[in-house]
Amino acid sequence: MNTRIIPISLAISDKKQRERLVEMIAANPMARLVDDDAEEMGVLIYEPGESVDEDMPHIIHALESGQAEDVYLAGNVSDPEVLIRAMRSGIREYLKFPLEENDFRASLLRTAMRSSLESDEGEKGKLFTVLGCKSGQGTTSLAVNLACALNARQPGRTVLLDLRTPMGEVPYFLDLKHEYTWGDLVADITRLDATYLQSVIAEHESGLHVLPGPAHAERPDNHTLLMILEQLRSSYDYVVVDTSTPVEDDLPKEIELADSMLVTLQLSLPCLARVSRLADSIGSQDPDANRRMRLVANRVARNGSIGVPEAAEVLNRAITWSVPDDGETVLSAINQGTPLVLAFPKSPSAKAVQAIANELAPRPRKARKGFSLPFGSLFRKKGKGSDANDSLAGATL
Fold first, then answer.
1. Can you tell me the distance from the alpha carbon of 96 to that of 47, in angstroms, rounded to the nearest whole number?
2. CB 352 within 8 A of CB 324
3. What is the share, in percent, of the chain residues with pLDDT greater than 90?
4. b/e code 326-349 from CB counts within 10 Å (16+ = b)
5. What's the CATH number for 126-360?
6. CATH superfamily membership of 6-120
7. Most CB within 10 Å of its CB: which of 53, 124, 278, 329?
8. No. of H helices and E strands in the chain?
9. Quick one: residue 39, left, alpha or beta (phi over 0 = left, psi -120 to 50 = alpha)?
10. Direct distance between the N- and C-terminal alpha carbons of the chain, in angstroms, rounded to an integer
11. What is the reported pTM?
12. 6-120 and 126-360 agree in CATH topology
């Protein structure tokens, strides 16, 4: 495992804030201060001043050439032109004065994460996100059974992430007792690595791994969720996410990063109208979304007033899969706390889910031997009594 300590160079004119940074670097096990005359630069923390117009071309060149691993702007930058120029040049971190230790730590973590992702040559796991146009569409049932169907190929190589808020229901579908949730990761995100992740994962008797959601919790912020999803993709062959309907004009990371997003719907005109708005909203934020979006007609009655072809015509979109109405069997499986594909594998609904799994992932993958971020061993999991404020903070450009 790579336990490289990130070198830090300072170009800070504010004496008090420079001293504060020196103290924070000395106290942080993943950072070290570089001498002013050293050849290496590492991460450059730069406070724009009167000479910013002269400095920026040299800083940008250092970043583009690789002389600087990363660049953080620091201070109280009020000139929007400086910020816009920094963003366009790949400078993504901004530390505002007075400096906060959590902000500095979070920026370092993101730098280490970006470095890890860029250097990771191994193939990442597939991410399948399941969502509905509204609640009550059978989204969680589909997510749970899809995850179980994928897991059956090689138990322990699939993980199910419950992102539904305010409270997910995945554990009820699996009769799963668990001690930790992704809330524990969020509270201590700076220590996220493969070992820490596995310590909070729950395991179903089938071998399916589950990361449940906390009760009545807000969603993780985008940076935190990105780290969790990328660590899951690095550790598993398949990641299935059960998530809530996204808010308009807010593209969640589990949708942005998904290899395929499965949108559940039922064949009623109000539901079709909601699906149309949802698909248009996602498509307007992500031009590639239409290629990755798969509509799943759920609970399709044999003699329904609206058929799948008619619904597809109304939506002007293909409905990729349909799951037949199998109410009594599905309800029985839920009440047993056993996934449908395990309790009644020969039922029409279970066979439909198996078909979806086969099309999403035609061949099982070989297990990989080790999974960890190169900076992971620098952190240790904190106990339940840890400071709740020691969480991801700081700004990115």
1. 10
2. yes
3. 52
4. beebbeebbeeebbbbbbbeebeb
5. 3.40.50.300
6. Response regulator (3.40.50.2300)
7. 278
8. 16, 14
9. alpha
10. 30
11. 0.67
12. yes
